[in-house]
Specification:
This protein is mostly helical. The chain contains 21 helices and no strands.
Length: about 425
């Protein structure tokens, strides 16, 4: 298999950061017990993660091609491994903010590099879309694994215990393995190396010019809204399970893994389906199905039930709602693949930076809005809110599809004229 070692390295990098990034939902639940912070105060952890992603991507995304994709990923892995090993000895609410700021900074470097590298190791649009879904599905497997790893370190009997911080020794060790694998992997980046010796400011301005193209602008809004939906659900599902469904803390974290599992399955399936069916048709059907699931699942959470001691006694609402991941799954990797495969490879680095920036802003916005609705109106209202951005995303995808088709026609006409 061509490029197998670098692909394996990309999978592992994404796996590690999936655990770290999406532990925010578990940590939001834990710090409420450990440090007595409110839901709205705990939601700030999402901002430390996502705003650092946006800030770092904004500053250096256009310059990463100079540093090199492999070197950039190595820097990110080294930074986050160092912070992970500091966590257990400096455990505090402030240190969790530092952790997520470092995680966001490192992930900005990783994601831009990974997305740009996909263009190097795939041969055409269909391969690009398929590999994008597979790598994003592996991200969800990382999230799924993370829920069970964290649940092994938390205590139902003593919610105030800070022993769960020791999980970061394990995560630091996994990060070092990812670093060593990447270090031993070769990556030919000559196809994306710029022949022009542009100044940093010029490369930064090129990224801004790219952002105001109509196709890219509509895509940016689409990515922002999607991540707003995803993170509002993912970051608050453990708290929803604990405070609305009255599940034990350990079980609340473990059952949130259903969302990650269903998303992973959805992305694996999309990797196959998108080779045969046009992406727009697939995504609209998925969004409509997600809306129906919200309307069906939330009322189930309001049904009274007896004491919950394990998976077998958990209410049906705890099982049904997380399957929204199955329908949301294909959207993000599909639209990312469409925009990247439409642009020249030389623009994949800056475009990946824009993806990371606006995805991060969407994640922060979604989590903070959900946290405040959760605190003021309850968990059911917070999750009903997802219907608003889902509707908006359907409208945006309609315009994105039209602009992408127009862009393809213009590229074909330009190619024909040059011959």
């Amino acid at each position: 298999m061509q490029h197998w070692k670098i692909k394996l390295s990309l999978f592992l990098n994404y796996f590690v950061f999936a655990i770290l990034l999406n532990s925010v939902g578990t940590v939001i639940l834990q710090v409420q017990g450990n440090y007595g912070v409110s839901e709205s105060s705990a939601s700030i952890l999402e901002a430390f993660k996502d705003l650092s992603i946006a800030f770092v991507s904004f500053l250096i995304a256009s310059y990463i091609v100079r540093i090199g994709y492999k070197n950039t990923m190595l820097i990110a892995l080294a930074l986050i491994s160092f912070v992970c090993f500091l966590m257990p000895s400096l455990n505090s609410f402030a240190m969790t903010k530092v952790l997520f700021a470092a995680t966001g900074t490192s992930f900005a470097l990783i994601k831009v590099s990974v997305y740009a590298t996909i263009g190097i190791v795939t041969d055409n649009k269909k391969d690009h879309a398929s590999f994008m879904n597979f790598i994003e599905s592996f991200f969800m497997i990382g999230i799924l694994t993370g829920y069970f790893i964290f649940s092994m370190f938390v205590s139902d009997e003593n919610p105030q215990s800070t022993e769960w911080f020791k999980v970061y020794y394990l995560l630091g060790g996994i990060t070092i393995v990812a670093f060593l694998l990447l270090l031993s992997t070769s990556l030919d980046e000559s196809s994306v190396a710029s022949s022009e010796n542009k100044a940093f400011v010029q490369e930064f301005l090129d990224m801004i010019k790219l952002a105001i193209k109509p196709l890219v602008l509509v895509f940016i809004f689409s990515a922002f809204i999607y991540v707003l939906i995803e993170q509002s659900v993912m970051s608050w599902l453990p708290t929803f399970n604990s405070k609305v469904l009255q599940l034990p803390i350990t079980l609340s974290i473990q059952m949130a893994s259903i969302l990650a599992a269903s998303t992973a399955i959805g992305r694996f399936a999309a990797g196959v389906v998108l080779r045969k069916i046009h992406w727009f048709n697939v995504l609209v059907i998925c969004l409509l199905s997600a809306s129906v699931l919200v309307l069906v699942a939330i009322p189930l959470a309001q049904i009274e039930h007896g004491p919950v001691t394990g998976w077998g006694s958990a209410p049906i609402g705890a099982f049904v709602f997380p399957f929204i991941g199955l329908f949301l799954a294909p959207i993000y990797p599909a639209i990312n693949s469409v925009i990247l495969s439409t642009l020249p490879k030389a623009q994949h680095g800056p475009m990946s930076g824009l993806i990371v920036i606006f995805s991060a802003l969407g994640g922060t916005t979604g989590s903070i809005i959900t946290g405040n609705i959760f605190e003021s109106f309850g968990g059911e209202s917070a999750f009903y809110f997802s219907l608003v951005p889902i509707t908006l995303l359907i409208v945006l995808l309609f315009f994105f599809n039209r602009l992408q088709k127009k862009s393809d026609v213009e590229i074909q006409m330009s190619t024909t004229a040059s011959h």
